[in-house]
Amino acid sequence: MPVVTVGLPVYNAAPYLADTIHSVLNQTFQDWELLIVDDGSTDNSVGIARSFSDPRIKVIADGLNLGLPIRLNQISQLAQGLLIARMDADDIMVDKRLQVQIDYFGKHPEVDVVSSFIYTIDKHNKVFGIRGSTSLPNTLKGAICGVPIAHPTVMARKNWFLEHPYNPTNFRGQDIELWLSIIETAKFHVITDSLLFYREIGLPYTKKYLQTSQAVRTLLKKYSKKIGHRNTLLAFLMTYVKDGLYILFHLFNNEDWLLHRRSKVLTTLEQQHAQEMLTQSIQRNLTHRL
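Structure for Glycosyltransferase, as requested:
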């Protein structure tokens, strides 16, 4: 039984999937399984996943398009590891990610969920910035304004994921709904090291943002009695203001400017160091391929 399962849901990620898998293979901590669950990809994602010969890699492909939350719950059910590490199929792990998070769990068994800061990258693997916060809300009213947890960096015990499944009908805000449901009872920790390269710059983003924003408004309606009418109204208005900004910048082909503003700008030396770490994380070892 491996210590940790890396849960990787995949949908049409062929341009980036090989780098993602290599970043798992290159981890300093090696007692893992990689569970790749395809959600009915129509590109060569499954072929790329199956081209790796490492026996720790398991590929599940049933040809169905069921949606991300259902696949995340499937990963929780199939995982053999005591811990489950989330990541997305277009992101890249820093080579020490698993070791750092596992070590933290070993020293702090009272913690339920461990996440980390992230590096932001573009579609060409260029590093742009750092994002993260350790100021986590501990009430539902505070969480409505946002929970600064980067979902692909999350690690938790398998039993915890099984006890707290994702809502299978919430296709764009399943992580937000999960955090809202447990924010007052779960114990979180955010590691201030950036342990994941998160791909967003240069990719179509506004449509996904608007879908997530609509999911947030649905959650606001659900929790309106608990957070109060005034707080609900203010949060509703803020979602529409942000929607308008993203639509406006999208119309002028400048949505990347907004994405850049969400991250801390790196110095030249920091950017160079991060770029070197990314290159190291995805380096190829031909023995990994069939």
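The chain is about 45% helix and 20% strand.
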